[in-house]
Amino acid sequence: MIADTDRCPCLSGNPYGECCGPLHAGAPAPTAERLMRSRFTAFALGLPEYLLATWHHSTRPTSLELDTAQRWTRLDVIGTRAGGPFDTEGTVAFRAWWRSDTERGVLEETSTFVREGGRWSYVDGVVSAG
Fold first, then answer.
1. Rounded to whole angstroms, how far apart are CA atoms 117 and 125?
2. What is the residue-level pLDDT of the chain in tens, covering all 130 positions?
3. What's the pLDDT at 130?
4. What is the set of domains in the chain, with CATH numbers?
5. What Gene3D superfamilies does its record include (predicted)?
6. Cβ distance 45 to 20 under 8 Å?
7. Which of 62, 87, 91, 116 would you label with 29, given CA atoms 20 to 30 Å apart?
8. Nearest partner of 31 among 107, 88, 73, judged by Cα
């Protein structure tokens, strides 16, 4: 796992215990971007339960298996639209780098989020060709 004092995998510059750690423990994300960052970190740490819990019920799969050979190594947020603490929807565009033993790649996506009952959820994403 990861210590609260370790650098957060989402590369916010904050320690895990002050960044994605509280969200993984159940605290609500204040913004769509923070939820997206916590979801990236969940991929990096292998937390499929968190990913499912933060996935909107209308698009959530029944199960999720993560590829343990794929390591998520870097996240760059390209831009956001809405998604603030007083919004009910927002989008976050990002690039996420990954590697395995034999390959490397980057995922570029614009994700859509909604806030219901004070909690942000991931709805879906559009992957950019690249």
1. 22
2. 799 999 999 999 999 999 999 999 999 999 999 999 999 999 999 999 999 999 999 999 999 999 999 999 999 999 999 999 999 999 999 999 999 999 999 999 999 999 999 999 999 999 986 5
3. 57
4. 16-127 (3.10.450.50)
5. 3.10.450.50
6. no
7. 62
8. 88
Long-range contacts of 117-122 (CB under 8 A, 24+ apart): 118/28, 119/28, 119/29, 120/28, 120/29, 120/31, 120/32, 120/34, 120/35, 120/54, 120/83, 121/35, 121/54, 121/55, 121/56, 121/57, 122/35, 122/36, 122/39, 122/54, 122/55, 122/56
Phi-psi sector, 11: left (phi>0), alpha (psi -120 to 50), beta:
left
Q: What angle do CA 48, 22, 104 make, to 5 degrees?
A: 45
Q: Check: pTM over 0.90? Answer yes or no.
A: yes
Sheet of 119-127: strands edge to edge? 71-82, 89-99, 104-116, 119-127
